[in-house]
Amino acid sequence: MIGFAGLSHLGVVSAIATATKGFEVIAYGDDFALCDSLNHGKPPFFEPGLAEVLASNQSRIHFTSDPSEIGKCEVVYFSLDVPTDENGSSDLSTLTKLIEGIITFASDSAILVVLSQVPPGFTRKLARRIGELQDGRNLQLFYQVETLIFGRAVERALYPERFIIGSHKPRAALPKAYAKLLSGFDCPILVMRYESAELAKISINMCLVSSVSVANTMAELCEKIGADWSEIVPALKLDKRIGPHAYLSPGLGIAGGNLERDLATVVSLANEVGTDDAIVDAWISNSHYRRDWALQMIHAEVISHSETPAIAIWGLAYKQDTNSTKNSAALSLIDALKPFSIRAYDPHVVLDVEIGPNFSQSASALEACTGVDAVAIMTPWPQFSSINMAEIKAAMKGRVVLDPYGVLDGNACAQAGLLYFKLGSPALGASEK
Fold this sequence. Notes:
Layout: E1 2-5, H1 9-20, E2 25-28, H2 32-39, H3 50-56, E3 61-64, E4 75-78, H4 93-103, E5 111-114, H5 122-133, E6 140-144, H6 153-158, E7 163-167, H7 176-183, E8 189-193, H8 194-225, H9 229-237, H10 258-273, H11 278-291, H12 293-303, E9 310-314, H13 329-336, E10 341-345, E11 359-361, H14 365-368, E12 374-377, H15 389-395, E13 400-402, H16 410-415, E14 419-421
């Protein structure tokens, strides 16, 4: 029996994926209503394919608000998402409280695994704490790197590229029950010391951030000199030193929470031990700068010509295929445009906070366009690409379309009489200025 303690995004997806591999799973969370909903096949958030996978494996997974049921499990994962503040710093208090509470219910020989992302040093300190609490029990502690991606979490959980495991004794064989579980996913297993595993996830994200920063920096240059970044990307992907899977798409800064947390962690560690973090500071600065791309374009193309502009915003999630708005560029743009009329639409996000008297959410993307001066596509939902350009133009008062990710056909937009802007590309459509 495999246990999961913590039913946030990470715990729900991981528990269901484990059941899909044929294991019996008990998943604990302290919210009875949430557990009841999951037991009836209703996930608490949107993730492509999750509801279907849960429905087909319902017989092998039981969600419970009774922590004592964790005592039936040989392997117990701590799978709570760790929240971050606006600076990317982690709040570990809830996770620590969960772990200390669950340990009292775990069996005497349970294998404990921290799946939540934690800063280097956390697991070793926890191991010492568990050693103090053991009272004759034979508990073993491991750290396992989580690699879920919002919008692709089911795919990543079912078909991981590899498992990275932090161990107190990295050269020793993994316990049989834990090894059997990991082998069920048929991927390479890398075992290393606690601190190396904790830093491995951060290192992976640093490489990702560096690729994003290169793409953002060069894409902006393309916009200014008439080059097109989308034409350059294939040349980079044919270079063996970069590769076909390199992340080279420019975007509106870094969002979602995880990358920001890792940047903040590296800065904090560097300041603590006296190493250089200048490149990380540069990445953070570049991210903040590029997040304002849409705002800069709206000022240049709309606000400079109208005292009372109306703006349509398509997409509120920080990226497609998720309803998470953590550090969303759309919300940042809405906050900056509060004095003006904002009409927003997102297929999966309904904001439950008070934005202001000039903000409203529409029932459709086209409805949001009615009478506006500009449309900003802040989340690249694929369904936006099927909307007719002529209908967009007919609904609008103005004609500015900001499509940073290239969801629409830029040439078709220009032919429909729209003025089209995309990250990394020259503007399409003659300016009326």
